Amino acid sequence: MIIGQSVSEPELQTFTEKRIGEMIEVLAKARAGNPxxxxxxxxxxxxxxxxxxxxxxxGAWFAIVDGEVAGFCSALVERTRIEAGKDDAxxxxxxxxxHERIDVAQALLxxxxxxxxxxxxxxAMTRSLASDEKRKTFLKSNSFEEExxxxxxxxxxxxxxxxxxxxxxxRIVRWELPDCSDSRLQAITEAFNDSFKDHMNFAPELxxxxxxxxxxxxxxxxxxxxxxxxxxTGFALSEYSEEYxxxxxxxxxxxxxxxxxxxxxxxxxxxALLADSIRWILEAGAxxxxxxxxxxNEKALSLxxxxxxxxxxxxxIFARSLKG
Length: 324
Prior knowledge:
By secondary structure, this protein is α+β, with helices and mostly antiparallel strands. The chain contains ten helices and twelve strands. It folds into two domains: 132 residues, Aminopeptidase (3-Layer(aba) Sandwich), CATH 3.40.630; 162 residues, Gcn5-related N-acetyltransferase (GNAT) (Aminopeptidase, 3-Layer(aba) Sandwich). Strand 8 and strand 9 form a beta hairpin. The longest helix is centred in the middle third of the chain and has 17 residues.
């Protein structure tokens, strides 16, 4: 990410919607070395910026060096996290390879710190691959400390997964995401928030993010939903990206979310949801299935190991206090 000093000082320019194409280009170049990343479409970029209910254009900047876009940074303050007492915000910095210089990253990070302080946010959060020594060194030099780790797990091969019957009174159904109404996604959001309210570092999610995913993403997504009559008791959100697989020469899918409401846990419902999600991904044609999990979530890890998942990489969440 960062290797040396610059010849000319970087200029910072504020993001506007007209510059989404430039942002896409920066992220595509900066993340090209990550095998699980692909180039965003314009609609996907709008999903994570101007359509996001918490996105503030004043909290996103380009770094310009010698007339070229050298990097991009965004600081996202989520209202629900602040209301939940988390007092933190996410900072993402991406530098294009030809401008991997410490002053470009530092200028963007300093701008993000100033913006978050103006919003009275007490902690900056960011992430790094555990294998990215340059990025980790840069973050530690700016007083970031490791807060927790997330494992990326993979289940390799097309070995069949047997149907797991949901425990009574639950039944399992599949909902194609593009067919879900706003009211249905509102119910999914409520189930999501109930399922994860006791998880590490959780804050409530907004229905708009599920709606934006539905409206802005062309990849096939399916919701595997557990129902007790009309009540959603748990669900999984799975994805098979034809575009990613085409660009990467791969054949993979993802289980992006898996949650069960507290009163329905320890009954085998999570196993039934996961089994159906994997089956859908394999039916779509994938050979490998990916998912992410907190490294300290031993119960979830035990479930995933039992389905043949193994750890492929680690991601580190870093935090830095902006107070005192």
